Amino acid sequence: MRVLLAIIFTCVLVRASAQTQPQQQAWKGKFEQLDQVLPTPNSYRTGAGAPGQNYWQQRADYVINVEVDDKTQLLTGSETITYHNNSPETLTFLWLQLDQNILADNNMTSQTKTGVVRDSVPAGFFNMMTGVKTSDYKGGYNIKFVKDAAGKALPYTINNTMMRVDLPAPLKTGEKFTFAIDWSYTEYNRQIFNQRGGYEYFPEDGNYVYTFAQWFPRMCVFDDYEGWQNKQFLGQSEFALVFGNYRVRITVPADHIVGATGTIQNPKDVLSKEQIERFEKAKKAFDKPVFIVTQDEAVQKEKTKSTKKATWEFYAENVRDFAFASSRKFIWDAQAVKVGDKTPIAMSLYPKEGNPLWEKESTKAIKNALEIYSERTFNYPYPVAYSIHTANQGMEYPMICFNGSRPNKDGTYSQQKLVGLVQVVVHEVGHNFFPMIVNSDERQWTWMDEGLNTFLEKETVRVRYPELYSTHGTPKGIIPFMKGDKSQMRPIMTNGDDMRYNEFGANGYTKPSAALTLLRETVMGPELFDKAFKEYSERWAFKHPKPADFFRTMEDASGVDLDWFWRGWFYTTDNVDVAVDEVKWFQLKNEQIDPEKKNIKTKKGDLTAEKNTGKNANDFSSGPEPFTMLNTPDQMYGEFRSRINDADIRKKLEGKNIYQIKFKNVGGLVTPLVIEWTYKDGSKEIERIPAEIWRINENEVVKVFVKEKEVVNIVLDPNFELADVEMNNNVFPKKTTESRFDQFKKNN
Q1: Among the three residues 189, 212, 242, which one is the final residue of a domain in this structure?
Q2: What CATH number is attached to the domain comprising 283?
Q3: pLDDT tens digits for 680-704?
Q4: Is the pTM of this model over 0.85?
């Protein structure tokens, strides 16, 4: 028989103990605040996570002329850059990115590539597996000159994928500097070099589809956080870029269709009268796409191959980059999308090899992405959004993205292909928001664009394509990764270049998305999360946020202390593994004990302790264990004159089922508790306990629950929303664990 002692006894003892203990150094644990980890707030970035009153960022405007040689694949360019120094510092040199040098001879990526030789290795994969050059292709930029506005040569130094340009005079705060670069490089076959741009050759008709990415020397970011972001481009971690305005003239064969960042400035020079009429019609078509170039027209151009040239001019305002695609094979469809008070045009370019899948789904997916992302962040501000079809790819740039998922030659396609197309188009179009507008540093923090974007991709599919929704980017979907060997993992807060390839996808994309899903659905609730996430998006639109800005804004805008969450999910490799270690079932013994006289008055029908002799700790078969409750002794009241009605307390608990559960934190990651109670009458109840239950003891907690009905089954994390990696210890009675594990395997 057990006696339930009043909580006040414990409180008195703990308080007395604390008063007699010597002062100790502050204990550090999983609920410690992140103040010592995050950078100190200042006038540039506030403690609330917002841009400060003295926030600044640089700007770079470009005027570029480029020509594509369809026979030699040579890209020749001339650019003029006007760099605006808005920083409080005086600059004596500038840094630019030369991303194409990743394919130059003796590049750092190939030199540091590790791998082994395997028997029967496919020839086409030997280069990717070992880094050994197996092609005659000569890559990298040929820099013809770097000159100032007066035509005087400027000293420059190339360091692999970075170029330093020395200024003729210090560039002071508020000043701007204009200089020019002439350059060229040979575009590569992306089937051989798995890079972000490149061309695909179609031997059946002898034509190319070109996607030009990282194709011109671009300014590095200079900011308040680290000065110049001139970390080498090694291929995995992406880009840190500066906002500016672009005017770009692109010369291609006259029968090519070009899609690019920005809007066409000279449609009469490059489009037929009929194409212009169709384009104008598409601007008002909200229900379905309008074909500007049909499949029959594109197929006809594949056969003729014009020898003339045409120059397409595009203008883009306040963008961080510029990309374009060009081919005579392109089919072109477009439709209008209503977003707030704006009407951007969603457009798809694709060869016939993409049909019928692309004409059915691509532009529709653009529309869905723009609408859902705009609801969750800010209204899409740009005038256009392109989806370009290429093989085996997904890559993003302002207003344009390159996407794979191609049907079979006979036009058939599987459900998997459909899901692949929808997901990749939504994801890459979504990148317009992160990082093209909320302009995080991809070179350092992959998760700030890929993780946030994967989360919103998942949400878009959930809302607009419920029949295609999966566990991708959810707590349930991340379990296999989280269950892996922790010694081989790195935290999310790790540079992407320092992660293994399989770890990069999880840490950069799906684990952050799963964390945000858990944060929205379980920790904060959708209303608070959505408001805070929208606040972050609006605060940092067209600016350069850092991780601390996201962490602080989410707390500032919600009133929820999330330091424990960021610390566990983003700074460690801990996983969620909570064991339902022990369950005890009690019922109040219907008797009154006088603590002064120590006599027991028992009423008829009392439970007896003898029933629980040899109690089974693995199930409820031994029935409840009775306990008695003392009247509150006078000494516990202290100076209070009134008295508690002990009889009322006993009456409220009379006939109730009281369950005491011990939870053990096996995985190390503190987490909310989601408990499913199944009652004897077949009904169920979900109960949610905040993660703060672990704040006193991070390893083990015991909690008491009072239930009206008798419980027959207890399951922790019944819907897999906590990413708990071990189901076998999540249930009671323990004999049901095997079926729980089988359920998980069947659903994954």
Answers
A1: 242
A2: 3.30.2010.30
A3: 999 999 999 999 999 999 999 999 9
A4: yes
